[in-house]
Amino acid sequence: MTADNDKKGASRRAFLKGAVAAGSAVAGAGMARAAEPDPLITEVQEWASGLGEGVDATPYGLPIRFESDVVRRNVEWLTADTISSINFTPIHALDGTITPQGCAFERHHSGAIELKKEDYRLMINGLVDKPMIFTYADLERFPRENHVYFCECAANTGMEWAGAQLNGAQFTHGMIHNMEYSGVSLRTLLTEAGMETTGDLSDKWVYVEGADASSNGRSIPMDKALDDVLVAFKANGEALRKEHGYPVRLVVPGWEGNMWVKWLRRIEVMDGPVESREETSKYTDTLADGTSRKWTWVMDAKSVVTSPSPQSPITHGPGPLVITGLAWSGHGAITRVDVSIDGGKNWTQARLAAEGQTKALSRFYLEIDWDGSEMLLQSRAHDETGYVQPTKDQLREIRGENSIYHNNCIQTWWVKENGEAENVEVS
Amino acid sequence: AADAKRIGLGREALPEEIAAWNVDVRPDGTGLPPGSGSVAEGEEAFIAYCAVCHGDFAEGVGNWPKLAGGDGTLADKDPVKTVGSYWPYLSTAWDYVHRSMPFGAAQTLTVDETYAITAYILYSNFLVDDEFVLSNENFLEVEMPNADGFIVDDRAETEYPLFSEPACMENCKESVEITMRAAVLDVTPEDDGAAAAEEAMKETNADTAAD
């Protein structure tokens, strides 16, 4: 135990909540034996006798109220207002890989707009044979594809460049979601506009922009546009949520979330990049010498232990413990995740819940027998290119501390003897 | 390019429709409409439409973006990145102001107002004098101080080989010390939504915000 137990930060609060939830469970090694019969078993409970809700009670359901902490959270001091701002997916409380849309993070530059299908128009113009207008109904008549991909904000973990700052995986790594998208390949739509007159495609670009006031215009090289970019209108089986671009967004597999233009309204084929605000002033990465990288599109391999973590402390005492987390890479599939409980001195290969899918989240598990001593928990992702997730010091050595974006460093959680966890940096 | 058949959906876009939506401006000036505006006209428009957030001299109010200042700070511990100190192209300023500003009332500025406001932002960054008039004719003559400050993503050369070495699995280091703790800062929001941040943190962290 440390003096931190007197602090009333999120970790302490989460810890207390967890401890209460654990109730009178007997902690300790070995098989527990109850002293008295459990009244939850020996007494007939209301739910085993009375009636539950009818099937007409909830035409479209929300999670049960006991899960009310599994919600998006905002960090007020990050941005000047909540309109051009960010919130965070509660990854500390989720499992598997698919992010429920209702708590999947949001990032807007002029707020989440309401655009109905009837009012929706998509324009393709520029260096094409015939500039085109499509309605939403038109889009649903094109051949369709389904793919699962992660969308990670370029700024995910960006507040952690200079040190350990926010205490929770939701805040340090929650600018991410992973959904199954249904839509039309951008290649199909560009073909419809015709590119006979476009000429050599290898030096061409598309500029994509949204219908909102910010527009969020970004330039994408043609080889990516024709490779795996999707114009999506369904996510996780249903229409996109308003805040995720309803009715149509761009899906740019493996690339920084900013380029996943929402409320997509226009695609222009060009012979060069626009160098818009979102690819000059923003989403450029300043290095220690003051020069900046531009067009840092791909999100490199990354992982994080989601539990235990500051918002998901150990409440059951020593014994069997499931260490779990997420790994992903914009370069392809995750092939392996290593976990360390001693701050990176020694590593054990974790178990992937399923074979890694390209540019999608992977879930990993490492089951251990926790002896109740302190741990410095880390995870380290490997992707199919052979890239191994670096430490923060390795990244800072090359980039300095001011690149804001693309922080894919190894995260450390200090798990204390009482089961609380804290975001720390280690030597 | 003729690798697939057309399906026959959609319709041809009309010139008026393309003109309404295709307003992007590129570094070489492509897309700039004819027009002009002076620093003096820009100051008037800026005070009316922009200064409430960006300050009378484009220096920024509170957490709102600074549009001027910060020259020579890009290699500092806390760089101040503005149109003058950071932005490589003037086209971006014109394009962004015209399409997405003022915040909350975008696409309300005329072409001439946009030239004038852009001229005033240049003046606020000491890049032109107070007699300056910006137009589509002289647009490319303006030199942006950080035009050469950007390199194309070089991670494939500078990082990927280094980070693709076989990973150490055992006895990788002798000791491990905790060097930094988030709980010491204590800026994480609490569950009741109360702002846990202190004023000092707002200042120091505004630059590393989500955007």
TrEMBL record, chain A:
Oxidoreductase molybdopterin-binding domain boundaries: 114-275
Q: Which cofactor does it need?
A: Mo-molybdopterin
Q: Which domain of life is it from?
A: Bacteria
Q: Which InterPro entries match?
A: Ig_E-set, MoCF_OxRdtse_dimer, Mopterin_OxRdtase_euk, OxRdtase_Mopterin-bd_dom, OxRdtase_Mopterin-bd_sf, Sulfite_DH_SoxC, TAT_signal
Q: What is a single molecular function from GO for this protein?
A: sulfite oxidase activity
| Sequence ranges assigned to domain Moybdenum cofactor oxidoreductase dimerisation in this UniProt record | 293-411
One Gene Ontology biological process: sulfur compound metabolic process
Q: Name one Pfam family in it.
A: Mo-co_dimer
Keywords of the record, alphabetical order, are: Metal-binding, Molybdenum, Oxidoreductase
Q: Does the keyword Metal-binding apply?
A: yes
Which PANTHER family does this entry report, sorted A to Z?
Answer: SULFITE OXIDASE, MITOCHONDRIAL, SULFITE REDUCTASE
Its protein name is Sulfur dehydrogenase subunit SoxC
From which organism does this entry originate?
Answer: Roseovarius litoreus
Q: What is the lineage of its organism?
A: Bacteria, Pseudomonadati, Pseudomonadota, Alphaproteobacteria, Rhodobacterales
